[in-house]
């Protein structure tokens, strides 16, 4: 295969015009006739040449979207949420013939430096910011440089950026009230990474709704969202003297792992213990029994994030919007607690 | 937030030098003293300015890697293989502070056009080509334009590109011989998308090794790799008069779905039917019983693809290499067939 590159000079020579004429034709500027412009574009196309546009106009023209994710690489491939979220973004980008520039970062400082570089050097038209923390340093740093972005998180976390969020507190309330209505008194929660804004919101909502329902404070465990951590947390909960009769998980991967642990420990789901998953990817319908879940369409959520960003890029200033709030989808893993 | 952009003129003014001097300093060219160069770079850094490099030098310098995947967006988020493969690529890119330009395409013509555009306009340093077909049109078109790439597929499919593959035929042989050694005579295979090169290789190997083992030709079903299709195929196989006593799946998602279908139909795994998964993501260890699988480290496979591409970019001409060939990992879903 040859790696010889055609230049604008080659195109000009073949078309029998000056280099300047080629440039005018491609930049759609006056100075060449319509017939000449058509001839030049056709010649270039036939030769397989495209102008080496500036990075900025490329990114703006092609609408490349940046996404930096601060998670270990292995985990990205295992947790359904991100993959579905990314696939949702891609579904909108594909319609627009745009692409996603994806990078894993080790910490938020690296992400700030990266987003700054992507934006200043013109590699992206805008970004989707995810996994917002309390007092997230990205908000000040990236709004200061004018990065167009949509921030996926509660408006209390997203500063001046367009915010897209799901009502986590409301969903936690619905989950706990459902289990309490079934008769559960000892409800535990296997939460996600404790530094994330939505973990803090869910954790606070869980405590509050347990108290409102007149229940003892339920045990809450933090994890890294992995199946392994979910299994460990479940084993610890189910081995305790006052083991819970119901467990709410912060994603579905951990709930699938929890189901396996319950079976391994000789407990029947849901007769002995009820399990309630979160996010509800296809996984929940692949287990036996199928997992009850707080369902939301993560793919559609990703698509909405991309559409909101393109809105921002066209000059919209969208209000913060709660979308795709998880709804209770009861399946085979939740029932009344065992008697006594 | 302000979107005013600094220009090279602003930097030159602040540093008290000419625009040409700023350009020389950033391009590391002679014509400015070391002290002046340092002063200019420091001034630009303090102002938050970076040169608007050409797209080509950006892509080359930052080593952006292109990946186009011809699968429906929803499926990308559900099938563990791609997510783990992408996470493996990202693990190598992160070490190099590079990013992945990811795009879903509807067909190979769209991919050819996209790769051509990415390469000609300088948005990528090279690409990873996946899901190769027999007589894949990408091979001729993309080698003709000199795109640096690694092609993930058997060397019979990859033309002049650096090839990285797994020995699918060998792995299918190992799977069938293992099940035959356990005593199975009726073995079925739930395969993937029939147009893919590796599906064709696995399908041919399955027929050949069944014949070699003196077994009746096993039934083979094509699917789209989804859990839903895997469940449908399993239901059809297990409802048939001469139902197989063992089923080999082309990924793990379909095997998980198959396990659920067997349970739903009142069949015990492995006492009544053995199930053998492929690829072996974390999913296989989350089910009960755990799924036996032809395991390979898909994350490491993705990382190897990225490293091979960077080798190609540094001028290497790597030999085709079979890596991470699946190895049999027996767990709880395979055993001797039921008597009779």
UniProtKB/TrEMBL annotation, chains A, B:
Gene3D superfamilies: 3.40.50.2300, lambda repressor-like DNA-binding domains (1.10.260.40)
Keyword Transcription: yes
InterPro entries attached to this UniProt entry: HTH_LacI (IPR000843), LacI/GalR-like_sensor (IPR046335), Lambda_DNA-bd_dom_sf (IPR010982), Peripla_BP_I (IPR028082)
HTH lacI-type domain mapped to chain residues: 6-60
Segments for region (Disordered): 321-340
Tree of life domain: Bacteria
GO molecular function: DNA-binding transcription factor activity; transcription cis-regulatory region binding
Alphabetically ordered keywords of this record: DNA-binding, Transcription, Transcription regulation
Protein known as: LacI family transcriptional regulator
Taxonomic lineage of the native organism: Bacteria, Bacillati, Actinomycetota, Actinomycetes, Kitasatosporales
């Amino acid at each position: 295969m040859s790696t010889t590159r055609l230049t604008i000079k080659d195109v000009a020579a073949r078309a029998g015009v000056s280099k300047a004429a080629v440039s005018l034709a491609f930049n759609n500027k006056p100075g060449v006739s319509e017939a000449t412009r058509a001839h030049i574009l056709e010649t270039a196309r036939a030769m397989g040449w495209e102008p080496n546009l500036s990075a900025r106009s490329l990114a703006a023209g092609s609408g490349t979207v940046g996404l930096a994710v601060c998670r270990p690489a292995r985990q990205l491939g295992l947790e359904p949420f991100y993959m579905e979220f990314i696939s949702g973004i891609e579904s909108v980008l594909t319609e627009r013939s745009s692409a996603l520039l994806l990078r894993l970062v080790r910490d938020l400082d690296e992400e700030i430096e990266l987003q700054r570089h992507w934006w200043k050097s013109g590699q992206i038209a805008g970004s989707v910011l995810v996994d917002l923390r309390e007092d997230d340093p990205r908000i000040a740093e990236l709004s200061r440089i004018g990065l167009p972005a949509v921030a996926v998180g509660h408006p209390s976390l997203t500063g001046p950026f367009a915010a897209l969020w799901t009502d986590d507190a409301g969903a936690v309330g619905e989950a706990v009230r459902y289990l309490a209505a079934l008769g559960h008194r000892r409800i535990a929660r296997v939460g996600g990474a404790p530094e994330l804004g939505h973990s803090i919101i869910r954790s606070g909502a869980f405590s509050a709704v347990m108290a409102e329902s007149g229940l003892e404070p339920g045990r809450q465990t933090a994890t890294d969202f992995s199946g392994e951590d979910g299994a460990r947390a479940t084993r610890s909960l189910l081995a305790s003297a006052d083991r819970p009769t119901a467990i709410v998980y912060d994603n579905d991967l951990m709930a699938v792992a929890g189901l396996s642990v319950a079976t391994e420990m000789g407990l029947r789901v849901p007769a002995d213990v009820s399990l309630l998953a979160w996010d509800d990817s296809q996984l929940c319908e692949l287990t036996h029994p199928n997992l009850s879940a707080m369902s939301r369409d993560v793919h559609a959520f990703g698509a909405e994030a991309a559409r909101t960003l393109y809105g921002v890029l066209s000059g919209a200033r969208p209000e913060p919007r709660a979308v795709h709030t998880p709804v209770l989808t009861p399946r085979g893993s939740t029932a009344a607690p065992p008697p006594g």
